[in-house]
Amino acid sequence: MTEVALVIDGVDVVVNEGVTLLDACRSIAKQQPTLCYLETLAPVNVCRVCVVEVEGSRTLVPSCSRKVEGGMVVQTDSERVRHSRRVVFEMLASSVNLALVDHPTREWMESYNVDPARFGPPAAPTSDRDQRHAGHHGEVVGGAAETVHQPIKVDNSLYVRDYSRCILCYKCVEACGDDAQNTFAIAVAGRGFDARISTEFDVTLPEGACVFCGNCIGVCPTGALMFRSEHELRQADLWEEDRQSVTRTVCSFCGVGCNLELHVQDNRIVKVTSPQDHSVTEGHLCIKGRFGYEYVQELGDLASTPVDVVLRRARSDS
Ligand code: SF4
Ligand code: SF4
Ligand code: FES
Questions:
Q1: Residue extent(s) of CATH 3.10.20.740 domains in the chain
Q2: CATH number of this structure's domain 1-120
Q3: Averages of pLDDT over each 10 residues, the chain, 318 residues
Q4: Which residue among 23, 47, 59, 173 has the greatest number of ligand 3 atoms within 8 angstroms of its CB, and so is best to mutate?
């Protein structure tokens, strides 16, 4: 394997040819913010929070996809980089509900002094995003910042879609498409600010091509896609991650050997994920592994009872 030498923030780095600038940064323990990047998906370069400055390059470059080249001189924390990342985070935070983004992203936003109100107070919610015509933009009223608000889509018993939390990172589209599931049940509809994730003709999930593998939920970084059980527990103010245990096990439905992570709260499975670093699944599952866990719980008449009611009852019994 040919090696490549470059300089990152004044540090000499030698990495294998073909790796990305993000990989090179990580090889010297320099983390960069990412939103649309995931090790198990092809880079789509849409969020631009990972940009770095490369000497001689007119524009900032996305570190998640730009391959290293010999002699590169890279800056990851210059004023230009910090300014660009801050504006990107501010545009997202002004229009999208980022309350459930992960802790590292929150820390990056704090480190850049991100001001979500920079473009004005949030505009009043509208519910017609799915009906908008491409290229027709509404008038800005009173200096308010338009948001991507729309009502939560609850159209099946397994998972919900809350696109007011969607940053359009494309991860769900990639996971549903040729990076994992090859089902192509969802894609980007609309253009510009009206772009949004949608099924074909905005049909409900059960009416569309979705096979309910939940791989889109597994990669969503903002909580826009969420287990219905988690959604209901959050609505009832009963979702408590610090009370949950996560147990790794093997799916019992077939011989493939997918690894599962069972998230258990109050002695009840509330969510199932799959480890990214497992060579069989790379974080992806099918509907049985992701959602077919009720049979391991003795439910009786509770099988049809909403999960928040079940947990309340379990607590009052203990
Ligand atoms: S559950 Fe699976 S098939 Fe359905 S939209 Fe998500 S990734 Fe696609
Ligand atoms: S729903 Fe989630 S994964 Fe899909 S584009 Fe929006 S934020 Fe990304
Ligand atoms: S993480 Fe690099 S462009 Fe999104």
A1: 1-120
A2: 3.10.20.740
A3: 95 97 97 96 94 97 97 98 98 95 96 93 79 68 84 95 97 96 95 90 95 97 96 94 95 92 92 92 94 77 67 69
A4: 47
CATH 3.30.70.20 domain span(s) along the chain: 159-317
Q: Report the pLDDT value the prediction gives residue 116, as an integer from 0 to 100.
A: 93
DSSP SS3 for 300: helix
CA-proximal residue: ligand 2, atom 6 (nearest): 166
Measured in angstroms, how far is the CA atom of residue 46 from the centroid of ligand 3? 6
- Radius of gyration, alpha carbons of the chain: 22
CA 84 to mean position of chain CA atoms: 21
Give the helix/strand (H/E) hosting 5.
Answer: strand 3-8
> Relative to the alpha carbon of 185, which ligand is closest?
1
Any atom of ligand 2 within 6 Å of the Cβ of 168: yes
- What is the dotted CATH code of the domain comprising 159-317? 3.30.70.20
215 touches 185 (CB < 8 A)? no
Ligand 1, atom 3: closest residue by C-alpha: 210
In the chain, the largest separation of any two C-alpha atoms, in whole Å, equals 67
Full-prediction pTM beyond 0.70? Answer: yes
pLDDT at 113: 97
